[in-house]
Structure formats: structure tokens, C-alpha cells
Amino acid sequence: MTTYTADMTEREIGEFLAEAEGTGMLGFGGENPYVIPMGCIYRRGNVLIGLITKPYGRKMECLEKNPKVCYTFCRTRAQTNLKKPCTTVVIEGVLDKVTDREYYGLGPARPEVYEKFGMVLNRLVPDKVSGRRCTQKPCELIAARAKARAAKKAEAART
User: Which of 13, 30, 108, 144 is the most exposed place for a label (fewest CB within 10 A)?
Assistant: First the structure.
């Protein structure tokens, strides 16, 4: 069977997470699995996720029943203007409340944010981390054609 993806190294995963922008998906296990879009930041080799806990809702119920989560962050080729391959990183682990914000270069906690929203910053403590990137040749060809079309348009605009 032909595969069009390759495993990423630990270094590649770290580089990907350091430059990652946008939203990933945070999944909670259990009898009724639950997935929500969730932004993250990557600091000092750690994925940090802020959870709004007010009003008390389903995500907090899920965490109380089972603290294990799965965070998936994807980047499509289109998001990079066809410059980088489709990439996915999956991190399985548990969320641990961050108590030393300064260690991550985040400055002091803001009690007014916690009081209003119940914002709690968590570090994703990984049990398992994996990453895959696309190696599919058709994607490379599409990217090359798009680059050629863009160059042709730019040339036409100059003349």
C-alpha cells in the first residue's frame, strides 16, 4: 500500500508547534466523546491551553470524569500559500493547571479575568505525541503550478 505521509521527528514537531497559529481541536474522552476548537500557545517546549470555566459546562464535566485529553493541530498547504506541506500533530495527555506564569514569559495572572470568565491556564502534559506531514507528489505538483501561475501574473502586471 502506498502512503503519502511521513512521521515527523521530535525536532520537527517542536518547530511546527512553535510557529503554529490558529486553532486546534481539544478532545475529551468518555462515554460521549466531546471535541471543541481551542487555541494554544507554545512556550518553553510546552503546549499551554486556556480554559474558560464559567459558566460551568460540559468541558469541565468531562475533565472531572476523565482528565485525559487529546489536542490536534493541523496546518493545510493552503494556509501557508502552498509553501509547506499539510501537517498534523496529535498530543495525548492530561491538563495540569499552570501556577508559574512568569516561567512561560506570560506575566502575572489577572484576577479580574479569572473572576469574570473563570479563565484557567493549563499545560498539556503529554503521554504521547505524534506528527505526520504530507509527502504526496500531486500536492507538490499543484504547489509548483500555482507558483508558476503567480509568477506569470506578476510578469504580466509588470509589462
Answer: 108
Please say whether the beta carbons of 133 and 85 come within 8 A. Answer: yes
Q: How far is CA 95 from the centre of its chain?
A: 15
**146: three-class secondary structure by DSSP:** helix
pTM for this prediction? 0.77
How many residues in total does the chain contain?
159
Closest CA to 143 of 75, 77, 76: 77
147 in Cβ contact with 141 (< 8 Å) = no
From first to last of the 159 residues of the chain, give the pLDDT tens digit.
Answer: 566 788 999 999 998 888 876 678 999 987 888 999 888 888 888 898 888 877 778 888 888 888 899 999 988 877 777 677 788 999 999 999 888 888 888 888 777 877 777 778 889 999 999 999 888 766 666 767 777 888 899 889 887
The answer to whether the beta carbons of residues 159 and 105 sit under 8 Å apart is: no
Q: Domains along the chain?
A: 5-158 (2.30.110.10)
Task: From 75, 70, 69, select the one nearest 13 (Cα to Cα).
Answer: 75
